[in-house]
Write a structure and sequence with these properties.
three-stranded antiparallel beta sheet
């Protein structure tokens, strides 16, 4: 190895090649074989080695960066693949859910229509949907005792349809309010005042009877309250639904205006925009603040939007309001309107009672004394007190009979009045809805004033006097009362229908009416 003769290589002078090139004197090295070389040659050799080392380092770094970029590409591709897989999975789930809903709801609607046609063909004067509800409930109870897994599977299969009916339930009551101007046109003003008095006073009386009966029975049986089965809640409305129905309304309204019979008849042509206006009113009304809902219920908003749409179309087309309202609810199966489509779901509402009752069967069994006693007493009181007060205030017998089932849900109330002759079914539906609106707005305050603190008594009293609308209003703020509301809501309609199906009971009611 060469050894320096004068100055070592690691001296400060050797750190800068440019400085050594100009100012550093030559330094001689002597190798082992006796040869000498100067410092400039050594520096050139070192610089060559450094350049080789730098080149190797740069090639290594380039190879590393290429490997890193390749890894990033692989990870990005993997993430893209996972995102695509998640998107396709989400789409497939939504498609499956939509198909599940259509199939389950279609089966319920088909069963309702089949029972209606069968009962009409057999001339049976009994609510066909009520018979179907008993059949479904009996089937579920049999399956639960023999093959519990089959009963659970049946409940799970029909749950989307049940939630759909729950979500849109108030919408099925609206048609009677929309066509109310046509229904009450021939009713004298004095009779209208009497009907309002009976409806408001009757609601309060039925509430008190049901609530205090439940309290009295609970004191006798002393059954402790237990937790009920959780009730599934439907999903809220989305912005997409709002804009979709809004688009349908605008397109169908303009189309019906320029092509009045494009779908064959005026009722069918008006159906899309009248139906969409009803749905839009309900979605908007459901999204209002709670303080506004107390005085402006979603059903009122829904009916008002439908009437305004009919009024706007009647003005723009020059036909007037009455013909458009007539197209809204035609009551003709071959030429249905928007109201006919909505009221066509009322039978499915009754069939859905079977699923809610089966889900709360343990609760019904545990509190059977309070529930059944209160429902029976309240239903009897409601029917006969309405008949008696109508006679005392001098209301026309046909109008009195039309408002007899004021505390029973619309679907079964219409079936009850169909058992009598000369009744006004539109008035019946309107009175039932108004009773529910009164209960929805005032039930909680009145229950507090009456000091009815027990959740069972509050739930039974609300449902027995204000059916579905009162149930929805109370359960929104008192979830613990919801199971009892749901049970009493169904049982009140069921018992009232069974009672009025007996000819002797109908004759006794007519005798009281006079």
């Amino acid at each position: 190895m060469a050894t320096p003769l004068v100055t070592p290589l690691f001296s400060p002078l050797a750190l800068s090649s440019s400085r050594n090139r100009h100012s550093c004197p030559k330094t001689l090295f002597q190798s082992k074989d006796g040869k000498t070389c100067d410092s400039s040659a050594t520096q050139k050799l070192n610089q060559t080695r450094l350049r080789k080392t730098d080149g190797q380092r740069r090639r290594f770094l380039q190879m590393g960066s290429r490997e890193m970029s390749f890894g990033r590409k692989l990870s990005t591709q993997a993430m893209d693949g996972a995102g695509t897989e998640n998107t396709s999975t989400t789409i497939s789930r939504k498609v499956f859910a939509a198909t599940h809903l259509l199939v389950s709801l279609g089966i319920i609607l088909a069963a309702d229509q089949f029972l209606k046609q069968a009962f009409v063909a057999a001339s049976i004067k009994f609510p066909s949907a009520l018979f179907g509800m008993f059949c479904i409930f009996s089937l579920l109870m049999i399956l639960d005792s023999v093959v519990p897994a089959a009963a659970t599977g049946m409940m799970n299969f029909f749950e989307p349809a049940f939630l759909f009916i729950q979500r849109w339930l108030p919408l099925f009551y609206v048609p009677s309010l929309v066509v109310l101007p046509l229904s009450v046109r021939d009713i004298p003003a004095a009779s209208g005042v009497k009907i309002c008095y009976i409806v408001a006073g009757g609601w309060l009386a039925s509430l008190c009877v049901a609530g205090f009966t439940a309290i009295a029975v609970r004191k006798m049986v002393k059954t402790e309250m237990t937790e009920a089965e959780p009730m599934s809640k439907p999903s809220p409305f989305s912005t997409l639904e709002l804009w979709s129905w809004g688009g349908i309304f605008v397109v169908s309204f303009v189309g019906a205006l320029f092509y009045p019979t494009s779908l064959g008849t005026s009722a069918r042509t008006c159906l899309p925009f009248l139906l969409s206006s009803t749905v839009l009113g309900y979605i908007v009304g459901s999204g209002l603040p709670s303080s506004i809902k107390k005085v402006f219920h979603p059903i009122i908003c829904c009916a008002l939007s439908s009437v305004l749409a009919a009024l706007a179309f009647g003005y723009a087309s020059g036909s007037g309001l009455d013909p458009v309202l007539g197209n809204y609810l035609t009551k003709v199966a071959s030429d249905p309107g928007a109201g006919d489509i909505l009221m066509g779901f009322l039978g499915s509402v009754i069939l859905s009672f079977a699923f809610s009752m089966f889900k709360q069967r343990k609760l019904v069994k545990r509190h059977a004394a309070e529930i059944f006693t209160s429902v029976i007493v309240s239903t009897l009181f409601s029917l006969y007190s309405t008949a008696l007060v109508g006679r005392l205030v001098g209301l026309e017998p046909s109008l009195t009979v039309s408002i007899l089932p004021r505390c029973i849900t619309v679907a079964l109330a219409l079936s009850i009045v169909s058992l009598f002759e000369g009744t006004n079914s539109s008035l019946t539906a309107a009175v039932v809805v108004v009773t529910g609106l009164i209960g929805a707005n005032f039930v909680q305050v009145v229950l507090d004033k009456l000091r009815l603190r027990d959740p069972i008594a509050r739930g039974i009293a609300t449902a027995s006097s204000a059916h579905g609308l009162g149930t929805a209003a109370l359960s929104a703020k008192e979830p613990e009362a919801l199971p009892f509301c749901a049970i009493a809501y169904a049982l009140t309609g069921i018992f009232g229908s069974l009672l009025c199906s007996v000819p002797a009971v109908r004759q006794s009611l007519l005798a009281v009416v006079g």
